[in-house]
Predict the 3D structure of the following.
Amino acid sequence: MPSAVDAFVEKNEKRFLDELFEFLRIPSISTLPEHKQDVARAARFAASKLSEAGLEHVEIIETAKHPLVYADWLHATGKPTVICYGHFDVQPPDPLELWKSPPFEPTVRDGNIYARGACDDKGQMYMHVKAIQALRAVNGGKLPLNVKFLLEGEEEVGGESISEYVPAHKEKLKADVALVSDTELFADGVPTLCVGLRGLVYTEIEAQGPARDLHSGMYGGAAPNAIYGLIELLSEAKDAAGHILIPGMYDDVVPPDKTEMESWQKLPFSESEFLQHEVGASSLTGEPEQTVLARLWARPTFEVHGIVGGFTGAGAKTVIPARGVAKVSMRLVPDQKPEKVIAAYRQWVQDNTPEGIRCSVRVLSASPAISVNPHHPAIDTAAKAYSDVMGRPTVFIRSGGSIPIVGEFAKHLGIPTVLMGFGLPDDGLHSPNEKYRIANYFLGIRTVAHFLDEYGKSA
Amino acid sequence: MPSAVDAFVEKNEKRFLDELFEFLRIPSISTLPEHKQDVARAARFAASKLSEAGLEHVEIIETAKHPLVYADWLHATGKPTVICYGHFDVQPPDPLELWKSPPFEPTVRDGNIYARGACDDKGQMYMHVKAIQALRAVNGGKLPLNVKFLLEGEEEVGGESISEYVPAHKEKLKADVALVSDTELFADGVPTLCVGLRGLVYTEIEAQGPARDLHSGMYGGAAPNAIYGLIELLSEAKDAAGHILIPGMYDDVVPPDKTEMESWQKLPFSESEFLQHEVGASSLTGEPEQTVLARLWARPTFEVHGIVGGFTGAGAKTVIPARGVAKVSMRLVPDQKPEKVIAAYRQWVQDNTPEGIRCSVRVLSASPAISVNPHHPAIDTAAKAYSDVMGRPTVFIRSGGSIPIVGEFAKHLGIPTVLMGFGLPDDGLHSPNEKYRIANYFLGIRTVAHFLDEYGKSA
């Protein structure tokens, strides 16, 4: 069976690439209002290609912001159902001057497609569509299992519409497992399933000192400084070694089990390469008693994403700032509860705000960590399919980031997600010159088809 | 003699006010390139009024930026020479919507002139010109002493040109004392001489962490955060009570002597009114063992004027910032040496920069504190003249700010400055609805004339 799919994919390589290029030419930048019609156009493109691949009930669902696309094929009686998720919106391409070829004119160099969305996520999402097409083509128009598609155009701007849609359509979206290709291989050539994602509590702290900016000559020494107050507060969040000092922060943290830790030890990971090629700082930081991968995947964080206040132009201005704002997040790990973390954080802000300053906290988002059971039959089958196609054992990793839809599927549909991605660590998502390796595009189509085939057979 | 001047001033009130209004209508905003011609126009206005007042050698001196104006009257053989300084440039009026009347259309309300520059410094500077005119008018065209004028149009943008001009023209500017009216009365009705100014070291610290902004999901926990590094560093600058922790910071600080401290105790100062009406915060801060006036006038400060880095837009973006910048200054008191403070500060930055972060320090300006000997004959005469005209004892105060020209005169001409100002604490310099009380304008003309007359007689 894989060989028939392989042959079909090989025969259609040019066409599959041309179609993806057409998709990539649509500048579906969800955050820019002037591209609203382009996001809609990308939705129509995806819908038409789902129809072409033989999916039924293809539907463009209007929302308050950008449309969702739904489709299904439900004729494999007695077989499991997989819901495929992906997104057809992209990040803005800025800074434009750093692109070697235009972001919305896909260009091939060294076996890679350079374009915004090539990897994140049009290229990966489109693999699912082509895998279905290939499976039907070699199987007399039938699929080995039931399939649903739910695609969105708001992933890069918070995914509000899909997070409202899922809980409101549980029956329609009912499935045994979800399939998402929006992640990457741990390293080139290594089949990789992601089985854990950190959660996130994202907040804004606003500090107010004097009623208005004051002259630092006239008032300096006696008037509180909102920025300095914020600095004093935030500096209390961690000790010099990177341990978070917010009381109770580690209370519910469940460390990874021995097997998982051991498997991480075997991953092809070099701390010095990670420092040099990815981080580019003078040294790494964080809890010294934890491995780097544990710090990234299994430990909560406290991060200041941005701060602004007072005079920030060129030259010198001697103000005591009245106001300052910082964006602060905490990544969560199993089994931390967002509500409990938020309460502890609010209390900590209150207890540590310096005299003369008033701080207010706004919570912008909150989601718990996600763990996927690696022994779930779908995960098991995915791992085997991955290994079969790529000829190496599949590794199980976690990701330090969050993929909100995985949480929505777990919470509202009660299903795990197979996070089977084919990006590479240097694909430059969200950056200029985003790329996706052509070989990985076809590898993904074949692996996804193989997984679906095997999962259909196994059940 | 004062009565003759008083009579002359009273007779010419309308004319003196009309002239000032004409001066105030020139939008001589030195920081905005589109107002360059207006600054030049203000210089020509001042020059022509100096001529009208009987000054000689009136000169508009072109510089790299905005012109200076020089003039003199040197026919009082054997008498001392006073150099009068003032500035004819003004701050931008923004935010315009907060002005009750247009900033460059002087408007009288409740006995005040509302206009940008009314107090800072056109209104105060112009008092000197009118005082000279009055003295000559009642003295048969003669003056009781020699007078030089040096006016600038760059005070609000750093005063670079005058600080180059003074050391290059020591002989031309030679004088016994300088007179500057760019300060305020300690309280309404209280004749006030300022005899001390803090110095200032103004710097910028740039922190660099990772080579580029990183995704906080992928890297959070192990990658250094430039903003957090900057926060950790800056938080080490002061203890919770406001004492500066930079080693050696207090080594050369000379506390005010007993007499001066006692005189401060007698000033009409209410800490709670200062907090409520001027600062507007929940409490004052700073070294608890120092009085508020000592904190403002006689203690060094460490202030963060602004900070920026990372994501500061609306909503949430999960970056680990690669870079952050803070504007940091230290106010200096006698006898701190700027070079020594800068060296200690640089060393402290180096010693306290957290792992993974690189910090660079740029010094934008550095000037020492200034003390004027209150027993200098000119100061003594000024205090008496002030008391005579206002009918209350003159108080000696310091200011927590810096007036760079006072330092230039001390350093290059070796002379003290009489800081005799007539503004009020609520005049709103640099703010919308800047005002200057009409009565104080005439009071200033009379007091300055009286001081010059007495100083001429005394020597």
Q: What stands out?
A: Chain A touches chain B through 81 residues (CB under 8 Å). Chain A has 15 helices and 18 strands.
